[in-house]
Amino acid sequence: MEIEGIKIDDTVDITDKVCPLTFVKAKVAIDELDDGEVIAIRMNDGEPVANVPRSIKDEGHLIIMMRHIHSLLKKLKNKEKIYG
């Protein structure tokens, strides 16, 4: 699967969850990825869109893009740092 030319390795739908379970379900899916893989996370507007990407970034992963339906992120190697 591709979204706007980006290869997606996995997807997770957290629209059926409420915070904090939205982040927990997303984190479990991310933990199953290999370094460098990309996941599309489908979430509801509101609290999940405000909190889940921020929490994922705080965990050291890269948010590639945010779109109305999906949020894409790349799992980074444990020692890789994000600047900016």
Can you give me a brief rundown of this structure?
By secondary structure, this protein is an alpha+beta fold.
How many strand elements? 6
Share of residues in strands: 25-35%
Secondary-structure element pattern, one letter each: EEEHEHEE
Mean pLDDT: 80
Shape: globular
Helix content: 25-40%
Task: Work out the radius of gyration.
Answer: 12 Å
Please give the largest β-sheet: 4 strands, mixed
Keywords:
single chain, 84 residues, alpha+beta, two-stranded antiparallel ribbon, 27% strand, disordered C terminus
Description of the structure:
- By secondary structure, the chain is of the alpha+beta class.
- Helices cover 27% and strands 27% of the residues.
- The chain is built from 2 helices and 6 strands.
- It has a 4-stranded mixed sheet with strand order 3-4-6-5, with helices on one face. Strands 1-2 form a two-stranded antiparallel ribbon.
- Strand 5 and strand 6 form a beta hairpin.
- Helix 1 crosses helix 2.
Q: Strands, helices and their partners?
A:
Layout: E1 2-3, E2 6-7, E3 10-13, H1 21-31, E4 38-42, H2 47-58, E5 62-66, E6 70-74
Parallel strand pairs: 3-4
Antiparallel strand pairs: 1-2, 4-6, 5-6
